[in-house]
Design goal:
Largest sheet: 5 strands, antiparallel
CATH class: Alpha Beta
Order of helices and strands: HHEEEHEEHEEEEH
Strand content: 25-35%
CATH architecture: 2-Layer Sandwich
Number of domains: 1
Structural class: alpha+beta
CATH topology: SSo0622-like fold
Strand order of the largest sheet: 3-2-4-8-9
Shape: elongated
């Protein structure tokens, strides 16, 4: 009997240590990933339920790029406090506020199962999704649509007023919740 290379890759990937920036899964994505990983034809590679970042604007990834990361809702007070800290401690960099949508990478045993999964996910609202092929690997990338990004500090000066920060905290929290609901719906479909 021929060895099942997909099962071997799945076992190897799922036994590896987490290499994410936070060093662990964010808690809101765990139930969905566990369900996906319990299925014979799928396993997750990297996934996030959505996050809010304050980060240095750069063209390429480097260490210390992320100044503050939240995987949960934020308050106006929290956001304002972090911005004050950044203004006191960082160099004259351009700092961005970024809300990232849920993203889920799923290795699939075959194209047919990837296509069926993709259709379900798109129906729920993972509109910016698709199937990627890397040699023998078929990866399904599910992206939701909740996203924000803009410069917030330049040369140690806040570019926005408190009214804008209050609005951004509110909108970001709403978008995070919307993404989490999509994750719950997808988990129920499985």
């Amino acid at each position: 009997m021929l060895p099942d290379h997909f099962l071997q890759r799945k076992t190897a990937v799922l036994s590896k240590q987490d290499k994410s920036a936070i060093g662990k899964w964010d808690k809101k994505i765990i139930p969905l990933c566990k369900k996906i990983n319990s299925k014979e034809k799928f396993y997750t590679t990297s996934s996030c339920s959505g996050r809010i970042l304050l980060m240095i604007e750069q063209n390429k990834k480097s260490p210390n790029l992320f100044i503050k990361v939240w995987h949960d809702k934020i308050s106006f007070k929290e956001l304002k406090k972090e911005l004050k800290k950044i203004i006191k401690t960082k160099k004259d960099n351009l700092i961005k506020f970024k809300l990232e949508q849920p993203i889920i990478h799923i290795a699939c045993k075959d194209l047919d199962s990837a296509s069926k999964f993709l259709e379900k996910a798109k129906h729920i609202g993972f509109k910016h999704s698709g199937i990627l092929a890397y040699g023998k690997n078929i990866i399904l990338e599910l992206n939701s649509t909740e996203k924000l990004e803009f410069p917030i500090i330049k040369n140690k000066k806040k570019l926005v007023n408190d009214e804008f920060l209050k609005m951004i905290a509110k909108i970001s929290n709403e978008k995070l919740e919307k993404g989490w609901k999509k994750i719950e719906k997808l988990s129920k479909l499985l």
